[in-house]
Amino acid sequence: MISESYNPQLIEAEAQSYWEKHRSFTTCEEPGRDKFYCLCMFPYPSGRLHMGHVRNYTIGDVIARHQRMLGKNVLQPMGWDAFGLPAENAAMACGVAPSKWTYDNIAYMKKQLQSLGLAIDWDRELATCKREYYRWNQWLFLRMLERGIIYLKTGLVNWDPVDQTVLANEQVIDGRGWRTGAIVEKKEIPMYYMAITRYAEELLDELEQLSGWSEQVKLMQKHWIGKSHGVRIGFPYQLPSTVPGVVEIDLSGILWVFTTRADTLLGVTYIAVSAEHPLALYAANSNSELANFIKECRRGGVTEVELTTQDKKGMPTGFTVYHPITNESLPLWVANYVLMGYGEGAVMAVPAHDERDFSFAQQFGLPIKPVIHTCASDETPVVWQDIYSEHGVCVNSGKYDGLDFDRAVDAITADLISKGLGEKKVTWRLRDWGISRQRYWGTPIPIIHCQKCGAIPVPDEQLPVVLPQHLIPDGSGNPLDKHNEFLNCACPKCSNPARRETDTMDTFVDSSWYFLRYSAPDADKILDKRVDYWMPVDQYIGGIEHAILHLLYARFCTKFMRDLGLIKISEPFTNLLTQGMVLNHIFFRKGEKSGINYYRTDDIKISHDVHGKIASVIDVSDDLPVEYGGIGTMSKSRKNGVDPQTLIKKFGADTARLFIMFAAPPEQDLEWSDAGLSGAYRFLRRIWIYAAEHQDAIRTASVLNTNILTEPLKAVRYEIHNALRQALLDFNRYRFNTVIAGGMKILNSLGKMEYSSDASNSLRREGLSMLLRLLSPIIPHITHKIWRELGYGKDVLDAAWPEPDEAALEKTLVTMVVQVNGKLRGKIEVPAGTEIEVIKKAAQDAPNVNQFIQGRSVLKTIVVPGKLINLVC
RNA sequence: GCUGGUGUGGUGGAAUGGUAUACACACAGGACUUAAAAUUCUGCGCCGCUAGCCCGGCUUGUGGGUUCGAGUCCCACCACCAGCACCA
Questions:
Q1: ipTM more than 0.90?
Q2: A816 CB closer than 7 A to any strand B atom
Q3: Residue numbers 664-683 of A with CB closer than 7 A to any atom of strand B
Q4: How far apart are CA A451 and CA A237, in angstroms?
């Protein structure tokens, strides 16, 4: 019996314990049955669920439940991306060990997830900070090392000179260390790298086959991988000997640069190298001003944003190099806009056809020589225009004049090759993946340093290298460096005392293969044959912010594991849904000294102007103004998050799920507002009350006999089936907001039947059954309860997915709109299947249409069958 | 700076190149109530008039273009969001 009032707390607890008791979501391999692996990106256990999680996991749950109703064997697992920086930050702030903090958070967040009613197989839960998981990171590392996929080289990091520690990019604020306020420096340290570039070609090519990925994400990855065809060009040099210094170098040699614009070679007016380039360092031996400049270039962080937006600075080395074609002397400069990590760490500068070279040349009075005829003119540029960098025909280039881009590149390259000063080369923007982190809370890198034998890999039988659980970082570097129990070990080769590597792995390693481990979470090897049943992931769902790094690393690791023979597939994710971000307004005040204080929405008062825009914001505690920082992703640090827990507590999980799915389509960013929340709750209550009111009639109703339907009931049935038809289409394209709108339309139509009769009761029974099944993936608790109580079946989870009755959708009369010259002027009703000529005539005779065609002749009539007639005159 | 997106009523949003504003929220008015809440009914882009229940004009960030027809396709611009390799 359904009670009169809707009590979500009660029915949600009941449904959840039913699922638990029946082990409804426990999954096992069923060879021969179609499987569907539905996976959401696993969360970082930050402490509490946020709205982005609710959105992500609701979308995944809706898809999983839908596939189940279509008859698939659905796997939806969940786990924890449990290593990472926030645990160390929490440790510093509260003195609690990262492990305790992390496990407490996992316990709490698991409860929160369970209260959302997600159809998750919790038997497969994993956490990357557990030794049973991260030991396989170490195992993979060793396999990569054996195959040369892991190698050692130096890399640039942010260095805090006061704390003597490496900082993450987010710990650098305005070029200063977050705790010390010291100006951050770039520092080169040795790191282990994964050679993802070995797979660059395959990672690029296979993007094309990923038909289940959006073009947007594929394009982002394509540009990230950044294949470019170009030429490596050598500029010979003969250097004067300088005073002996730190850097020694061959006095005659060749400086190599990479360019995609070899056609502009005759327009080169200077060469620029990065501050870390050997030639720059050599020049600094005898030039203290230059040495200072190079030192100054070390200031600031290592992010691409910082490097590419800094003011252009440069200084001549005093050296020259020779142009490989003309033998002309070209000045050699050090410039901060040239990056050592990309290409050769040196560029040939063509100020007339490259914007960065142009502004640098202008700033330092270097010559600008146009060599390409562009649409602009052949004049020397004074103010930069983008067309200067277009392809064109060579001018001022001697024997190459008149050649177009392709021919000029070919001719110039051929000449360079004959001199030994050039080669065609493909380069990639993609760089190898540095995985070493100077941090405690991560997977220990399984290497042992022996004074005699060097860096020795830990043998497989000694895995895992266990991370001590109780350490508490204090901000002054990695506590593993001071932990003798961990540090001291025996060299696996010579058994002498040795020292463990204390760097840990980037947490992206953890998340690059966890989706495989879900198939065999209890295996005593990395994977077993169950992986072949479940993989690939049929639907992967996660935030758009992971469109590049995580997804690229996961694709790379999948390919590597295929090459190891562990799996048969090359691509892990058949279909990818990238949900938009959940955004909210940001409010802040600049702090006294530095930094920014953010305000929670509860602590401020906002007034709007007549247009609804924010006019002023004040802090309720002191009535003084607070600045409005626009809109941005919900984050703890900006204090603009909305806690889903209060929402669930107040309205129930179904309301939370319904509201967030109704607010916007999944791929779109969602600007938070509680405005629609009560509407979602109201809709659920209306469903409940409808079911309660008609429960006896529906329970006893007979199967619908369409012959006894009256005309008004036929019209209602048309509305219901038509809304269902559209909603099903929307479901297939994951437009859940319009699916819900369709459900609302069905309920509105059901509500139109005022009188009780055999026919109307049967129609109620049919319509409500469709509504319940259609929305059960989105609002599983309320539909579970009503489905059972009204005697539709045992479990809506396994009910058949609804289908509209084609007969209900047949119309005898069709409404068509009539346009004159594209403007709406009237409507006509014609019997279905009316001949086109008759329709045209009817359109011209339609009321109100006549006045617009009077006195003119209809030149053309366009008829869109069943929809529209456009009279052109 | 580079790369990828987004922009529609007071608000969230809807619309295979074919009726712009579905479905909701908010708001206003009516009913119910001693009252309020809840519920329910009606109205709701802007402007105009000859006020039509099939009136007319304008309207999808701005300015152009393609088309019988553009929110949708193309070009330019503006604003906002995300990513940029050590946040995850």
A1: yes
A2: no
A3: 664-665, 668-671, 673, 675-676, 678-680, 682-683
A4: 41
Six-digit token string for A682: 């109201």
Residue A182 contacts strand B, CB under 7 A: no
Any idea of the CA torsion for A862, A864, A870, A873, to the nearest 10 degrees? 0
Q: Which nucleotide is nearest, taking the CA of residue A740 and each C1'? A: B23
User: To the nearest whole percent, how much of chain A has pLDDT over 70?
Assistant: 97
The answer, yes or no, to whether residue A213 has pLDDT greater than 80, is: yes
Please name the amino acid found at residue A717.
R
Nearest residue to nucleotide B67 when comparing alpha carbons to its C1'? A822
Query: How deeply is A462 buried, as exposed, middle or buried, from its count of CB atoms within 10 A (0-12, 13-18, 19+)?
Result: middle
The encoded tokens of residue A866 equal 């069943």
User: Is strand B in 7 Å reach of the CB of A545?
Assistant: yes
Amino acid, single-letter form, for residue A869 = I
Q: Which two tokens stand for residue A662?
A: 């109704």
Separation in Å, CA A321 to CA A139, A181, A277, A330, A833:
49, 41, 15, 5, 81
Q: Is the CB of A412 under 7 A from strand B?
A: no
Q: Kindly state the average pLDDT of the residues A101-107.
A: 97
Bases of chain B within 7 A of a CB of the protein: 1-6, 10-16, 18-20, 22-26, 38-41, 54-58, 68-70, 80-88
pLDDT cut 90: percent of chain A above it: 67
How far from A369 is each of A235, A266, A349, CA to CA, in Å? 18, 8, 10
Instruction: Retrieve residue A639's tokens.
Output: 């204090």
Measured CA to CA in angstroms, residue A722 lies from A716, A770, A806, A807, A810 at distances of 10, 12, 9, 11, 10
A84 CB closer than 7 A to any strand B atom: yes
Cα–Cα distance measured from residue A850 to residue A842, given in angstroms and rounded to the nearest whole number: 11
Question: How does pLDDT run across A254-272, given as a tens digit for each residue?
Answer: 999 999 999 999 999 999 9
- Of all nucleotides, the one whose C1′ comes closest to residue A166's CA is B86
pLDDT value at residue A374: 75
Q: C1' nearest to CA of A85: which nucleotide?
A: B87
pTM: 0.93
